[in-house]
């Protein structure tokens, strides 16, 4: 099953079961949230066939919201139901009573009302309760859903930008800049035979090098396994030449020259799927980019067969 199909099952079948009733969970501990995040990361790794490293990137590559964000979304969705409904329901009257208590200073109360105010403040959505208390019309469910989907997705993108601005996730952060399903996995929908090759690209993009390591193929030291493998290892020059020849046969000569003459990091990121520098949508069509990535992934997966377990730590 392709990751984009597997992720639909995760979202539509598994997540509703795991988070059933979470909108009413009050004062969830950090430990409980952490265990939920670990569960989702485990699923994301299994779906993509990658190892335990760079676990935060694995959920982002599938466009998955963090579990903490999902819980906040379910609370915001329930809030709209409370605000929008008429007063004929007893639970609506209890809600009104509780919110009035909270607004007059009884901030020690526990439960949904106490939980929702920090969430509203975090996402700057306080106008929802303010409008309600001022008897301004409450927005309908579809309008509210659209608003919170956009607000929470923007917040997730900001979080991803922040954690990838430095450290081990910089490369994958440059390649994959938003919390959305990675375009590389979408290629597998029409080209299932490339699933393994795309998996190699994803692995290279999130591969971390812990300190200096020695390449067992050429006995050279390096501090970036992906860079050494893709650009520098002299034992792989034949496979690398073959890859560049295939790329040259596929893309425009001017684009190939730009690629060849680009900065090393940009070259690596472009070969690993980045569409922000050379392969921007205004430079190359989606179909051409797909063909390019199929050729690159096939070439890199052929090189990868020489590489498995070839780096040792020193
Ligand atoms: Zn080497």
From TrEMBL:
UniProt-recorded name of the protein: Uncharacterized protein
Superkingdom: Eukaryota
